[in-house]
């Protein structure tokens, strides 16, 4: 539930079905978001650079994810009026605050990859 005060502060509860924090969690928990934020953490990038760096993402999904991240204030899209036009994506201040938590998740997934794969294999044998 979201409540507002006269100071327009929002208080969210992601365990409530219609709370906007769920949409935020959906955004930052999305694999494409994690990977895009990770790439942009290394510096600004053009669309084609992101597409090459993030294997498996389609142009459509990259476009949709970038638009969502821009709408949420996590990245900026800067258009340079050159010939041809150059578009660069970069993290906002809010986007930069995600680098630490997302890096921790990435490191955790690498560190525990063997254990997770072994568990999946054991589970699948018993299924």
Lay out the secondary structure.
Layout: E1 3-4, E2 10-11, H1 21-29, H2 31-40, H3 47-53, H4 59-71, E3 75-80, E4 86-91, H5 93-96, H6 99-111, H7 113-126
Antiparallel strand pairs: 1-2, 3-4
Compute the average pLDDT. Answer: 91
Q: What is the name of the CATH architecture?
A: Orthogonal Bundle
In the CATH hierarchy, what is the class?
Answer: Mainly Alpha
What about the largest sheet?
2 strands, antiparallel
Summed up:
This protein is α+β, with helices and mostly antiparallel strands.
Commentary on this structure:
There is one protein chain. The chain is an alpha+beta fold and 127 residues long. The chain has a single domain, classed as Arc Repressor Mutant, subunit A. The chain contains 7 helices and 4 strands. The protein has a two-stranded antiparallel sheet with strand order 1-2. A two-stranded antiparallel ribbon has the order 3-4. The longest helix is centred in the C-terminal third of the chain and has 14 residues, at 113-126. The protein is globular.
Key descriptive features of the protein:
single chain, 127 residues, alpha+beta, Arc Repressor Mutant, subunit A, two-stranded antiparallel ribbon, 4 strands, globular
């Amino acid at each position: 539930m979201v409540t507002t005060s006269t100071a327009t502060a929002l208080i969210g509860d992601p365990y409530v079905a219609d709370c906007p924090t769920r949409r935020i969690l959906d955004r930052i928990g999305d694999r494409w978001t994690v990977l895009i934020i990770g790439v942009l953490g290394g510096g600004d990038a053009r669309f084609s650079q992101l597409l090459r760096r993030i294997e498996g993402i389609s142009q459509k999904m990259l476009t949709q994810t970038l638009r969502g991240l821009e709408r949420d204030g996590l990245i900026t899209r800067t258009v340079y009026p050159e010939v041809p036009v150059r578009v660069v994506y970069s993290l906002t201040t809010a986007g930069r605050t995600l680098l630490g938590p997302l890096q921790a998740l990435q490191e955790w997934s690498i560190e525990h990859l063997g254990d997770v794969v072994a568990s999946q294999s054991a589970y699948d044998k018993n299924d």
